[in-house]
Please model this.
Amino acid sequence: MRSAAGGLRPCGPDDEVAEDEYVLGLYRVPVKARTGRKAGPAPQTGRLEAYADGGALRAVVRRLGERSLPTLARHEPDLDFSSRIRQPSMAALVREIERVDVARLPAGEREVLGLLLDWGRRALAENGALRIEIDAVQ
Model:
């Protein structure tokens, strides 16, 4: 396990991913509820951003444990599955990451938690229109 991994790198749909890496993706999903948005075409759904984590997500969950990051530990996928973090879990994920002392973590792990925190805050601001996916296989 590479705890001080090379960190995040942009990842496209055809990019190769190492066996010990996850692909973190931010997706826009269709929202059927009234949002108060003005008339016009709905925003495009699908993947907005994706990064390969260099093994840092697995390392930070192992380092901090389920007590510090229970939502992230619960959503860590098995070796050949993916996990989706939706609106109900997003607020808990943001709170948990905000409580972590990231200054004590290696750079790669700090970068992954910073990205997830940023995405979580964006998702909360958009009221369920965004979700985070953690894929073990591209």
